[in-house]
Design a protein that fits this description.
It is a single chain. The chain has 605 residues and is of the alpha+beta class. The protein folds into 3 domains: 3-203, Glutamine Phosphoribosylpyrophosphate, subunit 1, domain 1 (4-Layer Sandwich); 212-348 and 447-529, 3-Layer(aba) Sandwich (Rossmann fold), CATH 3.40.50.620; 543-603, no CATH class. It contains 21 helices and 17 strands. The chain has helices spanning 82-92, 155-164, 216-231, 245-256, 272-284, 295-311, 321-330, 343-347, 359-366, 373-379, 388-391, 394-415, 423-444, 457-463, 480-483, 488-497, 523-534, 543-554, 567-576, 584-597, 600-603; strands spanning 3-7, 29-35, 40-46, 53-55, 59-69, 100-110, 115-120, 129-133, 136-140, 178-179, 184-189, 192-197, 237-240, 262-267, 288-292, 336-338, 449-451. The protein has a 6-stranded antiparallel β-sheet, with no helix packed on it. β6 and β7 form a beta hairpin. α2 crosses α12 and α6 packs across α7 (321-330).
């Protein structure tokens, strides 16, 4: 199941008929609906999926995503079926959640007393939203549905997105609609909807004594188990094989275990993102198909860009059109993809400030610097078309200040806990990763389910309980020498499971195996040689040109909300745009404008 929608307000337009959604495709999807006098539950799943819905005499269960047993409970490789989850709940009660891991939303409805609970996994990359309105509740994995229920834009959340790249609380772009947070439970009993939690991120770092010595063999076994669990969900698996280390680590495990799979990557023809994996496929006979972001992609760009805005619930920038385009291509043969998502961020310290933790977030949250909102707006050319009369009201400024202070206080708490240097990782696991990488998974959901072996509860629990924790002390130290060891664990995986793939260059210009022996001394030479060669190579992505395509084609096809911006000035900017004026901050703001301004037009056929 990748879409779930439910309410006890059965006369409301909120209850979208699954087959009426814009992105519903009967060749790829099928709908599941349960209705009684108390509730209607709608779901969409991939065609042929059999294990994400179950109805017994007393219960109905919907499962979004994939659920596995934690290793302390069972070494079972395959994912857990919906009927098995129900059996586990009936046997264990709510405590059954402590036995599970994965990326999932579980909904269990009791027919006899018209109650339900919704469980979100501990790491929280799946999206589900809720709203309470008098005696009614509204819950959906699609934020667009809430535009049908007293739709009012939450300007504070819009401002957070503009400043920090994502909302910093569980508020959404719609007033009084909230995202269920990781390790959260929505309970509906006695005609009331309540929110609780069963897991806190600090439980990943609950070492009571000294750190355990990092055991390479144990780590490698854990990673292999994680990959095999993901690969076991389908006979038709695709794995991401880009120019980097993370995808190659997954592929090494799949090759060693003789798993049948296909590989892919996307980028412009001749770029590293396609030429490096093409070299791997030729040398090792790996089934690889590049998804070239060339003429066909550019012809499809505006459609994919608008789909990104809609499917990401307004959070993602339209420039990620390549993700939807690629997902549609992959869906022709595979519905489940194994990727290296969040591998580099959790196996090694973060050095650069990027999409999941930008400069503003670092300065305001980690360094406790003051944020001058009027100055930020006036000096940022990307948001010069904002309406300050809306965004700079005392109400909005004060609300944002409260959200900032709440986040800062939690980070300060992390800084005073054991292993204080891990404060940033705890913060990213609770906010940055779910809002950025979780959103990437969310916008792909109609086509592919993104499975990441790196972001695994058992794996993280082990790493964060060992002496490996000390490497994170180098976070935010942007030194080439320090960064050189950032892919050591991936290199270990590659050499252990399929050393031949470790002798082929990655996009950094050298083979992964060089990280593990005397050849490490040659890495700087190959790295700088690659940098020199890259000056002649075409880029993998050309956002400047693609933005020009989008602005020209979208023209005045959308009626922008005058409360948020100055529409006429934006229309003039789009018309006069040239590639030298490319500004990612404007593109991000424009994506938000599109989502906030579009209602039924984009959501329905």
């Amino acid at each position: 199941m990748f879409e779930i929608n439910l309410s006890n307000d059965q006369s409301s337009d909120f209850l979208v008929k699954p087959t009426s959604r814009k992105f519903y495709n009967p060749d790829l999807h099928e709908d599941i609906t349960y209705t009684d006098k108390n509730i209607t539950i709608n779901g969409i799943r991939y065609k042929g999926e059999k294990h994400d819905f179950f109805e017994s005499e007393q219960y109905v269960i919907f499962v979004s995503g994939k659920t596995y047993y934690q290793l302390a409970v069972s070494k079972q490789i395959r994912s857990i079926n919906a009927d098995e989850i129900l059996d586990l709940y009936l046997k264990e009660g709510r405590g059954f959640s402590d036995k599970l891991k994965g990326n999932f939303i579980i909904l269990v409805y009791s027919k006899s007393n018209a109650t339900f609970f919704i469980l979100k996994d501990q790491l929280g990359l799946k999206y589900i939203y809720y709203k309470k309105n008098r005696e009614y509740f509204y819950i959906s994995t699609n934020l667009n549905d809430f535009k049908e229920v007293d739709f009012q834009i939450n300007y504070c959340t819009v401002l957070e997105k503009i400043i920090f790249n994502y909302p910093i609380s569980n508020c959404t772009f719609i007033k009084d609609v909230y995202m269920l947070e990781q390790g959260g439970i929505l309970n509906y009993t006695n005609s009331a909807l309540n929110v609780n939690s069963y897991f806190e991120v600090t439980e990943l770092f609950s070492v009571t004594g000294n750190l355990e010595k990092f055991d390479e063999a144990k780590f490698l076994n854990l990673f292999e188990h994680s990959v095999l669990q993901r690969a076991g969900v389908s006979e038709h698996i695709s794995a991401s094989l880009t120019g980097g280390f993370d995808g190659r680590a997954n592929v090494a495990v799949l090759l060693k275990n003789k798993i049948k799979f296909k590989t892919y990557s996307f980028g412009k023809s001749g770029g590293e993102n396609t030429t490096v994996p093409l070299n791997v496929s030729k040398k090792l006979n790996v089934n690889y198909t590049p998804i070239n972001l060339d003429a066909e992609f550019e012809g499809d760009y505006t459609e994919s860009a608008r789909a990104v805005v809609n499917l990401s619930d307004g959070i993602s920038i339209f420039e990620r059109a390549n993700y939807v385009y690629a997902a549609k291509k992959i869906a022709q043969s595979s519905r489940y993809i194994i990727t290296g998502l969040i591998g580099g961020e959790v196996f090694a310290p973060v050095h650069q400030k990027t999409d999941y933790i930008n400069e503003n977030y670092y300065n305001v949250m980690y360094d406790q610097k003051a944020l001058d909102i009027p100055k930020f707006i006036s000096e940022n050319p990307g948001v010069k078309f904002m309406n300050p009369e809306i965004f700079l009201t005392p109400e909005i400024v004060n609300e944002l200040a409260e959200h900032i202070e709440k986040r800062r206080s939690l980070i300060q708490k992390y800084k005073h806990e054991k292993f204080a240097w891990m404060y940033y990782m705890k913060d990213l696991i609770t906010v940055g990763f779910p809002h950025f990488y979780g959103n990437q998974m969310h916008l792909e959901r109609y086509y592919t389910e993104n499975l990441s072996p790196f972001y695994d509860l058992d794996l993280l629990k082990y790493i964060f309980s060992t002496t490996h924790l000390n490497v994170y002390k180098n976070a935010f130290k942007n030194s080439v020498l320090l960064r050189r060891g950032n892919r050591k664990l991936q290199s270990l995986i590659i050499k252990k499971f399929y050393p031949a793939i470790g002798e082929i260059n990655v996009d950094r210009g050298y083979p992964p195996n060089y990280n593990l022996d005397h050849r490490k001394a040659l890495i700087p030479y190959y790295f700088y040689k690659r940098r020199k060669n890259n000056k002649k190579a075409p880029p993998d992505f050309d956002s400047r040109s693609w933005s020009a395509i989008f602005f020209k084609e979208i023209g005045n096809a959308i009626e922008l909300d005058e409360k948020i911006c100055r529409p006429k000035d934006i229309e003039e900017h789009l018309i006069k745009y040239n590639k030298s004026e490319y500004n990612q901050a404007f593109n991000s703001f424009f994506s938000i404008l599109i989502w906030c301004s579009e209602q039924k037009v984009l959501q329905r056929k």
